[in-house]
Structures are given as C-alpha cells and as structure tokens.
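Reviewers asked in the last cycle whether our approach scales beyond single polypeptides. To address this, we selected a multi-component target totalling 354 residues and predicted its structure end to end. The input consisted of the following lines:
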Amino acid sequence: MIVHLATLLMFQLAGEALSRGLGLIIPGPVLGMVFLLVFFILLPRAAAAIQPTALGLLSHLSLLFVPAGVGIVGHLDKLGADGMAILLAIVGSTGLAIVVGALVFVGLCRLTEKSQ
Amino acid sequence: MTGLPDIWTYLAQEPLLWLTATLIAYGVGDALFGLSGRKPYVNPVMIAVILLASLLWFARVPYATYFDGAQFVHFMLGPATVALAAPLYANLGKIKTSAIPMIGALVAGSVTAMLSALGIAYALGVRGEVLLSLAPKSVTAPVALGVSESIGGSPTLTAVLVILTGITGAVMATPLLNLMRIKNWQARGFAVGVASHGIGTARAFQVNETAGAFAGIGMGMNAVLTAIIAPILVRLFL
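The resulting structure, written as structure tokens, was:
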C-alpha cells in the first residue's frame, strides 16, 4: 500500500519536474499518468500490484474536488451582471458537447466496424 | 474549565476541524446520493460544496483557514490523476481498437463545447474578458487557467467556470445520454471526459469502470487539444 502510493507520487514528481523544467502546458500529473502507463506496459506485474491502490483512490475521486469547489463559492459574484448568460452558456454548451461527442463516437464505431 | 468560545477559537484555526468537516460533508452527500437510488442530480460534490460553503459563511470563517485543513484532500488530486493510468492500462485493448472514434469524438466534442459556449454567451451580450474566460472551461483546471491567461481571459473567473462546468456535466450526462439512447460505455464516458474534465470523470467512475477509464482519456486528450485550438477559435468572437 505504502509502496504503491509512493510509486504514484514518484511518477507525479517526475511529471512535475519535466513539465516545469521544459515549461510545458501539460500539467505534471497528466505527464505522470502517461509515464506510469508506459511503465505498466513494460512491466505488467507492477500494474497488477498497483491496480487495487489506484482503483481505491479513484473510487473517491469526487471527494477530491470538494475543497476547490468550496473556493469558487466566494467568487460567484465575479460572474456579475453576466451571471445568467454565463450559466446558460455553460449548461447549453456542456449538454451539446456531451451529446455531439457521444454520437460521433458511436457513429465512427459503426463505420469502422463495417469496413473491417 | 475552558469555555466553549475558546475551544471554538482553537478548533477553527486548526487543520483538523476543516479536514473532518470536508470528509463529513462529502459523507453526507454520498449517503444522500445512495438514499436517492443514485440519482445523478443528487451529486455528492455539489451537496458537500453547498454544506461547507454555508457553514463557512455562517461561522464567518475565511476560505484560507478552511483550506489549511482541506488542502490534504486537495493534494490527493495529483496522485489520483497519475492513478488514472491503472484503468487506462486495464482498458488498453479496447482503446487500441477505438482510436478513430476517440479522435473524431475528441475534435467534435471539444470544438462544440467551445463554440457553443462562446456563441450562446455572445448572443446574450457577453463580451471581452468574461467571454474569453469561458473558452477553456471544459478542460482540467491547471490547463484551463493557463489557456485563459494566454488568450486574454481572467484565470480566477475561469476557475469558477471550470468547476461549474464539471458539476453541470456530472449532473446532466446520465439523463441526457439515456434520452439519446446511447448505451456504449466507451462513447458515454469519453464524451463526458471531453466536456466536463475530472468532475465528469469522477461521475463516470461511479457509473461504470469502462466509462470512467474512457472519461479519463477524453479529459487528458482535450487538455492538449484545447490548449492548441482555443487561441484560434476565440478570434471568431473578437
């Protein structure tokens, strides 16, 4: 458990170091995720060992957004006079993006299955 | 004997109280989510945020004091992002076979999210810095803030919009996709990850592990794509 957590932190550290060092726009943890995936592909035994800890952490992913969420409440007034327009834009665009994305995915799945 | 106000003064300054409060508030949210029969609009993050924000407001506790305790929870976002490699690895076979649908859905979802957000806000009279801050709202917070700054938006406002978008996506996704009768977990998860980043991904994991893994990929890919195309798309609205 401790070793697995340390592994996750080590990959995050490597990602942060590279992201900051090279001034990349991709955040360190995202790079760390890519490195860990490559590590798993090279060493499937490590993947089997770390899997339970990683999935355990991910099953509580929602909880981890709570502190940032509380922080935004104090900033809601920044939406100002445009508040209603912005909320409509967020609800409308998020709904549209989910529907369009999923439909394109399903459509392309059917096309690629047919051609095979 | 120490009086109650003194105990409160001590506790309100210590990390312990707000760390505990964060876990309890989320526990309450999660319990209500379970009691409701896992209804998507009973979102545990939203409930916990409302409970904690009300508590801070009533007790007149500044956010910085709260965050001293809550930062231990916030910190785990980093390792949790790295941990996304585990479900990705488990779904590697499915990912290899659906590369084309993923790329198509990524471009379609990402462009739709940005253009429709900018279009709706523009039509309703939003202009300038506030409009630009809206463009990167579908991507994970650290990337969104960087993009917002580079295109002339306000990073603070973008942070607010990112969280609102995440909660909106997490609440809307299941009813919307059921209405569209889309049953493919890969498609559902991927689209949610592209449109509403980590909060949407967390929701996808609650529903189905494959959906969660694909949401994680969608989130990661859109972070890169948005950073590249947001500066080009916003020119249409300047």
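The two ends of chain A are 44 Å apart (CA to CA). We regard this as preliminary and will revisit it once experimental data from Aim 1 are available.
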